[in-house]
Amino acid sequence: MARPTEPIAPVDAPPDRRLSPRALGLLAAVALVAYGLDQGTKYLVTTTLELNETVPVLGEILQLHYVTNPGAAFSLATGFTWVLSIIAIGVIVFIVWFARRIRSLGWAVMFGLVLGGAFGNVTDRLTRPPGFGTGHVVDFIQVWGFPAIFNIADISVVTAMGLFLLLSLRNIGLDGVRVKDDRWKSELPDEPAAAAKKKKTD
Q1: Pairwise CA distance, residues 111 & 28, whole Å
Q2: Spans of all domains in the chain
Q3: What is the mean pLDDT of the chain?
Q4: Which residues pair with 56 in a beta bridge?
Q5: Cα–Cα distance between 4 and 175 in angstroms, integer?
């Protein structure tokens, strides 16, 4: 007589790998808006202002100051424009490849802002003087007390970093599910169960 086989323990289902059209659509829309605003404002600045010209918007608090930047933020790495271009292109390729894993709308906005900002500045490096891959980025926003002049692409990337911190602190995963921290549950006794046990032993 054959022995009954023991039931096989269920295997955890693999994570859902399906694409999220909503998240992908939102990511693409945010990236296009950020890129369009960046390139549109740069076009207006370069066609209406002279290089190094300053136009007050809110007195000295906010000014339009048209400059070109061969380096990164705060004019760092001015001699490595090609390296900065390659890094930016790498970021763009990674986000495009990684986007299929994103199902959270919050993370979609974050990656969309990074994608639009990176693509905006790399467009300058690839298309503006002095040449392909070494072009200078157009900066024009000057805020009183801030030590650098920046553009819409920079604002997009900085906003994305703030959103990244917010999502990380709230433990929201790429799938939009908030991960709860259960580390203390195994260390602290369950209060109702502990009270019942104590009453029974009295």
Answers
A1: 9
A2: 21-198
A3: 83
A4: 63
A5: 41
